[in-house]
Amino acid sequence: MAKFNAKSFNERVFGAYMSAVPNLKFNKLRASRAVVRDVRLREAFKNNSQTGAVYATLPFFGLLGGNAQNYDGVSTLTPTSTQTFEQGVFTYGRMNGWTEADFSYDVTGGTDFMENVRNQINTYWSNVDQEVLLSILKGIFLMSNTGTSTIKAANKAFVDSHTYDIGQGSADVKTTDDMKVNATTLNSATQQACGDNKNRFSLVICHSAVATNLENLNLLQYLKYTDSNGIERDLSLGTWNGRLVLIDDSMPVENKNVGGTGGNISLYTTYILGEGAISLEDVGAKVPYEMLRDAKTHGGEDTLISRKRNAVAVAGISYQKATQATNSPTNAELETGNNWSLVNDGTKCIDHKAVPIARIISRG
Hints:
The chain is 27% helix and 29% strand. By secondary structure, the protein is α+β, with helices and mostly antiparallel strands. It is globular and about 90 Å long.
């Protein structure tokens, strides 16, 4: 694209250009298979097959069950059937704009500040989507009080079993070092959550304090990439026990007094996601990019406006939309526990071990 201003701006050409720019971090998340595409979401929202195109209820098929019966030529077979549950899925929309003045161009000898905006916009939206993902995970682990008594019990069982807490001095923790992640933490946490399905886990999202502790134990290896100048650089991604690790200081950190220590300590939450844990589908906005020209203000300004809409489904978890004021949930609403529940049929929930999501609470 030869020019980038309000006179020559073509939002379709620009959108195609931005889609072609590689997003290294998000591509790695896709490669981990924890964040996946989902044709169901595309059909429900992008093709507008459901009225409103902001929330949908999709069928969630249960597993085959029942005891195998004796085939002896005498016994009569009694067939069973699979259960079908319902899963709530949703869309969220986000928008922002960036304004640059003509005068900035004049006084810097022709520096194109809008070019700088263009170069950073993919990274910006990747970080926004990551914040949404963390809000979803926070809300999921607050869902114990959602639903009927039976469903509440199942939700609480999920939260308890999928939380591996070594940071608050449980009976098997002897020293402060034992309250930090170590060589066995990840394996123990995934086994507690999903039993023999623990190998489904493929992505870890942790605070830099946790990552530093892993580095000190030689348990974290950083991935690298070669930039356009041929220089090899570290990504903010590594591997721990074969799982991709995303390091993010927006991860939850709670400062509290534990066990009468006489002072506050920091408790870090680390999330672990399995393959297909989050389905994320870009369903688009009518006008994803546009430029506005204001010739009067500050001697002339150009504003780039960008809009995004994504559809989301969480494996084995239903979005209830119990507390949502508009057609797009805010991050605060996604962090509200009563908006989430294990997938259920109104009386019975799926087995929580089928949900490949877990968290570790540690002191680093």
